[in-house]
Each structure stands twice: as structure tokens, then as C-alpha cells.
Amino acid sequence: MENKKENKIVTNNGIRIKGNVSAFSQYTHDKQSSSEKAKKEKKRDKKEKKEQKKVVKQKVNKKVETKAERRRKAAAKKRIEKYHQRMAASKTASHSSFEVLQKKEWILDWNYVMFKNGYMVIYAHSTSSVRFRPLKTYVSGSLESFNYLKKYLNERLPPVRCEIVGLELRIIDEIHFNEAIQQFAIAARQGVIKVKRNASNVIVSPLPMSFSLAMSKAKQMTPEEFKKYKSKYIDYLVVEQSKEYKIVPCAERLAHTTGDTTEFAFLFSIPCGNDKVMIVHENVNPDRSTLLFLVRKEEFQKSIRAIYDFLQSPEINKRSSLRSRDLEIDSAKILRYKSINHDDYSSWKQTIYYYKHYYWG
Predict the structure, then answer these.
(1) 188 with 215, same domain?
(2) Helix, strand or coil for residue 126?
């Protein structure tokens, strides 16, 4: 048997392989094919991983964008809800809440006050720009019968300033408020008050007011305010008025057996010498005579208070009693008193001058 020579091939790694050349070539081909296949698979795996990472990243970005979008949508929804709330509030009220909050001061209108026994409730105007919650305040002496006097007293009472913060009402002028309650009580005690139906024909008469309120008003008055009365008697007394004192506004009550009326008047103070003052009562009605009262300076406050109270008192025929000198004046510290008619302005002015410089000097 003939022996065939075997080819020995040494590979790069030093491993000897027995066999013929054709077998080795097949082996080499197979190995190269498997290596290329492995490379392709590795490249494909790498590409797949890259694609997976890209997909994951896109999902994350999409998730973040969704959250931001949700936040934007939520904020927009909230703004829309607030807008609708504001629109609903503006439809309910006749004026916007901004206008309500900006209105800081308000004058009390007695027509919008409901009196009860022991307390009262203040309401806002139905057509006013001012809005506030009804204020219930306990007032000693308040009566339900005061409701019948509101239209009559509303224009005659001193203004009562109020403050509105938000929707809460607070009374600032407590002095004027208390004075008004007193006037309601006084008017209620006087009985039935007749008011004319035609408002244009109603004659507004002043109401009695306390001396402290009159003194408070006196501090605010200026000489120009007296010009509206177009009275030469008042104009003259304004010039003669002492700089040391104020002109005191008052209401003269003219009580008679046949009727009871009230008229505007003033108390002027004219110096007489070094230690005396002449208190002059002048009614805005030119048909009323001028009343003169001589007092000492040290007793001025007590005397003017007594004169003020006397002229507002319900005493009947006060002027007639004064002219007939039928008055008790010692306790009022009044030295003398006198009445001067308005028959002639020149004569009247000379009489005032005479009493100031000579008779009471």
C-alpha cells in the first residue's frame, strides 16, 4: 500500500494541522465566515442598543414636555376660573369690587337706617357706588317710631362721616351721630310733625343742637359764609366781632301758644372796654329785633352758654319777656340786656356803637 505524503501546514498561532490543502482551505473559509458573521451581529447589536437608547431618551423628553404642558394648562384654567368669578361678581353688584374698596368715606343717609327698639341697622344705598355689609349697632334710646321722622330730619341733621374699609362700615363722627340720635328723641317727644307733600315748597328749619356742637361748627366758619344771608345787619356785626372769640351759630326757637317755629341765628361777641363783652344775638330774619347782653369777660363762657340754651328753650314768648324785662339773669351772670328793632339801619348801627363805647363802656 502506497503511503501518501501528508501536507503539514503551520498556522499563525503555531498550531499544526494535519490534512490536505483542500481541507485547510475549507477550514479557513469557514472560520472567516464565522468571524464576519460575529462582526455583523456585534455591529447589529450595537446599532440596536443605540436605537434603544434613542427611544428611551425620546420617551423621557416626551414625559418632561407632558408635565410642563400640564402645568401650563392648569395655570391657564385657573386664570379662566378667576376671570369668570370676577364677571359673576360684577353682574351681582351694580359696581365693581375695585370701586367699592376705593371708596373710603361716606356720609350717613338716615333714609337708609332702620330703627329698632334699642338698636339700629345701617344699609347701603341701592343705587350708590358704595357697598358695605349692613351695620347693626346698639343705641340707647333708639325707638321704632324714629323711622317716621327720617325724611323730615335727614336734611336738618349735621353730616355724619363714615369710613368704609373693604365691606365694613365704621362711624367716624361719633359726636354728630350721638347729636342726631338726640334730635330724633327730641322730635319724637314734640309729637306729630307735618311735612308738605311738595318737596320744593318745604321750608327747612334748623334743629336745636348742643352747645358743644355749635362751638365745633364755629371753629370751622369763615366770614365769607355769612355773605349768603345778604343781611347788612349780619355784615356789620361780622366786622365788629372780637378776634378773641368765635361767631357761634344757633337756632332760635320761637314758641308761642299758637305755634312753634325755629329760625337760624348767630351769637356775636363785641368787646366793651377792658373787662366786658357785649353778646349780640342776631336772627337771619330781618323782622326779628337784635338782642344785646352785657357780660364780664371772666364769666363769658358761662353767660354765652346760658344765653344759647335760653334761646333754644321751649319757653313761651321769650322775646316779649325780654322786652318787658321779665327775666331772671343773676345765675347766668348777665349784667344787662336790651332789644333793638330793625326799623332803620342807620339808627340801629348808631345804637350798637353807642352801647359798645358809652352806655356799657
Answers:
(1) no
(2) coil
Q: What's the pTM?
A: 0.47
Kindly state the cell numbers that stand for 128. 350708590
* Whether residue 245 sits in one domain with residue 135: no
Query: Which residues span the domain enclosing 237?
Result: 211-359
Helical segments of 134-173, H only: 150-153
CB 360 within 8 A of CB 334: no
**Does a structural domain hold residue 241?**
yes
Length of the chain: 361
SS3 state of residue 43: helix
- Given a cut of 70, whether residue 184 has pLDDT beyond it is yes
The per-residue pLDDT of the chain, averaged, comes to 76
Residue 282 · residue 239 · CB < 8 Å: no
Query: Are 216 and 158 within 8 A, CB to CB?
Result: no
C-alpha cell at 31: 472560520
Please answer whether residues 125 and 94 qualify as being in contact, where contact means their C-beta atoms are separated by less than 8 angstroms: no
Q: What confidence tier does 304 reach under pLDDT thresholds 50, 70, 90? A: very high
| Residue 328 located in a structural domain | yes
Q: Are residues 124 and 232 in the same domain?
A: no
DSSP string, 286-326: TTSPEEEEEEEGGGHHHHHHHHHHHHHS--BTHHHHHHTT-
pLDDT-derived band at 36, boundaries 50, 70, 90: confident
C-alpha span between 212 and 192 (Å, rounded): 28
Q: Count the domains in the chain.
A: 2
| Average pLDDT of span 48-69 | 68
Higher pLDDT, 201 or 74: 74
- The pLDDT score that the predictor gives to residue 62 is 57
Cell of 74: 392648569
Q: Give tens-digit pLDDT for 1-33.
A: 444 444 444 444 444 444 555 555 555 556 566
Q: CA 175, CA 159: separation in Å to the nearest integer?
A: 11
H helix or E strand, kind and range, residue 56: helix 21-92
Residues 110 and 180 in one domain: yes
Same-domain status, 179 and 243: no
Asked whether residue 215 falls in the same domain as residue 353, the answer is yes
